[in-house]
Structure formats: C-alpha cells, structure tokens
C-alpha cells in the first residue's frame, strides 16, 4: 500500500507516450539501469530485518554455516559399524571392554533395525497411503488457492485498467477543453488587439477630418 503522502500520477494502462515517442523508452531503460546499479548504504525502512536461523540449535546453525562456506561434508564414521578386535597383543582389559561395548551397541542397533523393519512391513503401506493422500489434499488446496489468487489478480488488473481508462478519458477531455479555452482566449485577445488598432486608426481619421473641416 502506498503512503498517503505519495502522489501517483501515472496511468500505465492509458498512457502511450513510450509508443508515441520511442526515444523516451531509451531514457526510461537508462534510468532503470542507473537505479538498479545503485547499492544503498542502508536497506529501505520497509525491508524486514534479517532473520537469524536456528538460534536454538547449534548443530543446525553450524551445518548452515558450513553450507554457506561451501565446505565439504565430513566423512561418515564407519568405525561404529565394525567390530574391531583389540590391536595390542595380548589386549588389555580396557581394550576388550571397549570392543565388547561396541559389539553390544552393534547388536542393539541390529535389533532396533529389525524391529523397525517389522513395523514398516506391518504398518508402512497404510501409513504411506495416508501420507500420499494428505499430500494430494495439500496439493489440491494449494492449486485452489493459486487459482483464486490468479482470478483476484486478473480482477484487480481489470478494475485498475477500467478505472485508468475512465480517468484517462476524463483527463483527455479536460485537457482538450483547456486547450480549446486557451485557444479561444488567444483568439479573443488577438481580436481585441485588432479592434484597438482599428479604433486608433478611426480616431486618427476622425482627428484628420476635424482638422480639415
């Protein structure tokens, strides 16, 4: 919405100066290029402040910083998926305890994985169908909203065009009337000047006739 102090005096649907005067189009394009080349020191007051993402999640914030810096993703740690034995011969109690804890973690991971696969086989198909149905409904709602916005946009542009055509015709009629009135005033002034010249001539002739009488 424009501020109340803004003055909008353009009727783009009615004005055809760019078509009548092609050199104006070049000037407009040059002005647009010049304005686009300017880099303001401060953003426009209407520009919302920059949003800082993931302020409460250090992991996601760090990942976003990594992507912005275009750094490579660190390689995955595959050691947790292996069952290495102690490297020392013979292994210490701590080495064997660490290897045993790793084996137990792997066993628990495989157990949870088997449980998830069982749940997926039992309920996955229906859950996927429901998810697809929800996505289809969302897509339909979005398409419906898009069509409504398109219709609203067309209606707004139609109303704007009709109002600009109406106002443009009124302005053209007023401008034509103003031009005719100015022309009439000039003609009256020229007629007055001619009458004054004729009166001066008649006064001079009257004076000459009075002198000869």
Automatic annotation (TrEMBL):
Pfam family, one: BCAS2
InterPro entries with a match to the protein in the record: SPF27 (IPR008409)
Gene Ontology CC terms, in alphabetical order: catalytic step 2 spliceosome; precatalytic spliceosome; Prp19 complex
GO biological process terms, semicolon-separated: mRNA processing; RNA splicing
Keywords tagged on the record: Coiled coil, mRNA processing, mRNA splicing, Nucleus, Spliceosome
Subcellular location: Nucleus
Any coiled-coil regions, as ranges: 132-166
PANTHER family membership: BCAS2 PROTEIN, PRE-MRNA-SPLICING FACTOR SPF27
Family the entry assigns: Belongs to the SPF27 family.
Protein name: Breast carcinoma amplified sequence 2
């Amino acid at each position: 919405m424009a501020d109340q102090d803004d003055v909008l005096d353009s009727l783009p649907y009615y004005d055809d100066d760019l078509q009548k005067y092609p050199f104006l189009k070049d000037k407009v394009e040059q002005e647009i290029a010049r304005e686009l080349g300017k880099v303001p020191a401060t953003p426009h007051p209407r520009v919302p402040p920059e949003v800082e993402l993931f302020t409460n999640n250090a992991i996601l914030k760090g990942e976003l910083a990594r992507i912005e810096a275009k750094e490579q993703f660190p390689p995955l740690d595959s050691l947790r998926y292996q069952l290495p034995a102690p490297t020392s011969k013979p292994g210490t109690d701590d080495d064997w305890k660490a290897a045993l804890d790793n084996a137990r973690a792997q066993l628990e991971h495989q157990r949870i994985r088997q449980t998830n696969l069982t749940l997926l086989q039992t309920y996955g198909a229906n859950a996927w169908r429901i998810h697809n149905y929800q996505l289809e409904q969302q897509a339909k709602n979005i398409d419906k909203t898009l069509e409504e916005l398109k219709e609203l946009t067309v209606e707004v542009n139609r109303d704007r065009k009709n109002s600009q055509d109406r106002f443009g015709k009124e302005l053209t009629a007023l401008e034509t009337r103003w031009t005719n009135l100015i022309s009439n005033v000039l003609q009256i002034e020229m007629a007055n000047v001619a009458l004054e010249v004729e009166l001066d001539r008649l006064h001079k002739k009257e004076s000459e006739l009075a002198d000869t009488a």
